[in-house]
Amino acid sequence: MAILGYISSILIGISLGLIGGGGSILTVPVLVYIFHLSPAVSTSYSLFIVGVTSGVGLIEHYKRKQIHYPTALTLGATSILTVLLTRLYILPAIPDSLFEISDFTITKSMATMVLFAGLMLPAAWSMIKPSKPTVVSGTYNQSYVHLTLYGIVIGLVTGFMGAGGGFLLIPALVLLAKLPIKKAIGTSLLLIAANSLIGFIGDLDHLAIDWSFLIQITLLAVGGILFGARMGKNINGEKLKKGFGWFILLMSIYILILEIFK
After folding, report:
1. Alpha helix locations (H) across 94-210?
2. Nearest 10 degrees: Cα torsion 222, 223, 224, 229
3. Residue 107 three-state SS
């Protein structure tokens, strides 16, 4: 099982390198179901893994000037603050046992994984559905109200679920900010790195970190994102994106069945 976890860690990086998102949605399930960590610890570790991996993948986009900083600032201002507040105050305030239905207790851990599986469904669909060509005029649309509200949504997803939110960011950057896809991927990686690492910092005062394990998994994901960035130059990213989407869809169904009937 450990070997499967290590392979999955590489796939997390490959997905981030190829399409600027999607890999982070795998991180928590890998940590929970393969490495048997609690959902609370897994969401925290996921923030570090995804944050560092995205930061490394960002370097190449920075060199190619594929980052739109005004958009990143608009989204980042609200999303980073939302992530930090969520990790520092909201999550610790949620009790371990939420409520009971007859003799069935809904726990915080179960609710986390069910919500995570629910989050994976639209992520999978966004990867499976055919991409519509987007015409970009070269003039970026700064709809500050929409981007600010979207930043809060991204922050809540990252803060609660430990997912970078790339599957939400890419459509927002393309459709709301009218960025070209390559610039959207670079901007997405910057936001994912910032949101995730700030969220992880918010956990340091109340969580014991197994740094040896965490760095090991992170290095595998970093190797994956470097490999994925190279692969992106030579393979059909659209087909790989769809295949990855189907994989996420099946995993989300598996998590729902496991959590509800275990």
Report:
1. 108-128, 144-161, 166-171, 181-201
2. 90
3. strand
pLDDT tens digits for range 102-144: 777 788 788 877 887 887 787 778 777 776 655 444 555 556 7
Strands 104-107 and 97-101: antiparallel
Q: Give CA–CA dist 30/41, Å, rounded.
A: 12
Q: How many domains, in total, are found in the chain?
A: 1
What H or E segment, with its residue span, contains residue 130? none
Tokens of 163: 């997912």
Q: Judge whether 29 and 124 are in contact, CB under 8 Å.
A: no
Cα angle, residue 154 at apex, residues 39 and 52 outer, rounded to 5° = 65
- Maximum distance among all Cα pairs of the chain, rounded to whole angstroms: 59
Q: Which of 12, 172, 160, 203 is nearest to 76 (CA)?
A: 172
For residue 104, what are the β-bridge partners? 101
Round to whole Å and give the CA distance between 213 and 33: 16
Amino acid, res. 133:
P
Structural domain range at position 13: 2-261
Asked if 96 contacts 108 with a C-beta cutoff of 8 angstroms, the reply is yes
What's the token pair of residue 111? 């609710």
Confidence label for 179 from pLDDT (cuts 50, 70 and 90)? confident
pLDDT higher at 75 or 165: 75
* Structure-token match 């649309």, residue found: 141
